Amino acid sequence: MPDFVRRFRCLIASPGDLKEERQIVADAIKDASRGLSEQGVILEAVRWETDSSPGIGGEPQSIINSDVNLPEIDLCVGIIGSRIGTLTENHPSGTIEEIKSAIERFQNGEGVSVIVYFKNVSLNIEEIDIEEIAKVKEFQKECESLEVYYGRFSDHSELVRKLNLDIVENIKRLMKGPGFEDGAGDEGGSVSATQCGAEVDEDLGFFELEEQLIESLEVVGAGVQEIGEVLNGAAEGANEITKETTGLQNASRAKQKVLVNKCARLLDGVSGRLDIIVVGIDGDAKNLSSILNLYLKEAKEISSSTKEETDFSALYEGVNSSIFGLKTFLDSAASLRETVQGLPNLTGDLKRAKRRTQKSLGDVIDLLNSLYDELFTLSSKLR
Hints:
The protein is an alpha/beta fold. Helices cover 62% and strands 8% of the residues. The protein has a 5-stranded parallel sheet with strand order 2-1-3-4-5, with helices on both faces.
C-alpha cells in the first residue's frame, strides 16, 4: 500500500431532478478512486444529499455550501438538463453557484478543476419551460466565454463513458500540481477508471492456484487486520477524549473548542486510513474471488479424473478462522459508527469529520459483509 494518501474531494453539482445522473457520477468517482488507489489517491464524492443536513439561520444554499466545505473542493462535476435549478440569493441557482465558485477559484490560481455536462433532452410540448431552457442556454454561453470545458450526453451509457475518461484525466492533472508529494503524480504507467485487482492467469494449474489462493487470503486477512487496528485505535482515542470531557461543561469555551478540534482530527485520521485500506482490500477481494472460482473448477476436474475427493481440511480451517475475525471487526465497526453518530455537532469541522467517518465506516461494513459472504460460500464448498 502507498506510504501516504492524497484525498481529492469531488463535488457533484446539478439540479435535484437529475437524481439518476447524480448517482452515476458518484459511482464513476468511486470507480476512478479504485483505479488510482495504487498511486495513493482517494476520491471522495461530495453531494448535498449525503454531505449536508437540515438547518436554520441562513439561506439554504449557504448552509449547503458550508456543509460541503465548498472552498476545499478539488473537482467540480456539473450536470445540467432542461432546468437550471432553484434561485439563490446571489446566483440563478445553487448548481450555478457551486460551479462558478470552482471556476473563480481556478481563475485565482487554486488547484481545482471543473467539468460540466449538458444533457440532450427531448421534451413534450406540455413539459417545455421556455424560461428555464433560456437560462440553460445562457449558462452554456457563459461556460464558453469562461473557456470552461463542457460536454454533452444523450443517455446514461454515454455519460458513463465520458465520466470514466474525464474524471481520471482531470485528477491526473491535479496530481501534477503543488501538494502532491513523492512523485505520485508522475506519468509512470496508464491508469484506468475500471482498474481494480490483478487478472488471474487461466493457464495456472491446481498447485499454483492453491498457492495464489492462500497468498490472496493472507493479503486480504492482513488488510482486515489493519482495519481492526484502526478501529481499536479509534476506540482508545475516543475513550481518552471521553475522560477529558469530565467537568468540561464548566470550562471555558476556548478549552471546549480545543477538545472538539482534537476529536475532529481523530475522526479525520480514522476516515483517511480506512479509505485507503478499503480501496486496497476491495481490489484484493476481487482477485481472491477470481482465483477461488478457477481453483474450485480445477479441483472438480481433478476429482473427476482421479475419482478421489480433494483434501480441503487445512484451507477450510483457515477460512473459518477468517470468518470469525470478520464478525468481530464488523461488530466493532458498527459500534464505532453508532458512537460517532451520537457526537454533538459543536463545530463545522467536527460535523464534517463525523460525516466522513460515518461514510468510511459504512464502506468498511459493506466490504466486511461482502467478504463474510464470500468466505462463508467458500467454507460451504470446502466442507
